[in-house]
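fyi for ur records
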Amino acid sequence: MKLLFDENLSYRLVAALQDIFPGSAHIRDVGLLGAADRHIWPYAGDNGFLLVSKDSDFYQRSMVFGAPPRLIWLRIGNSPTRVAAELLRARYLIIRRFVEDPEAAFLTLAAD
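which gave:
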């Protein structure tokens, strides 16, 4: 399971989660920083990424187009990077089940 972090999330998440999500990247790492959602969406799908974002636009895109890519929508507001990292780490098994479900297009994760 490799994650592609949207620009509304820190590039530092790649290193923070590399042990459990190897091969992950931030959109700046793949030359998409500042790119429109319509360019990020197919890149994630074509390259086998789970797209991770706090952006409701990607949630809406997921509802219209479905997967791929699959979306992990973080509902954490303006939280520090640590909160996003802890949430993704704590929900690893939920994310794994999400990936294994052939019908699932998006997963919403919120901090407790």
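The helical segments are 12-16, 37-46, 56-65, 81-90, 92-100. thats all i got for now
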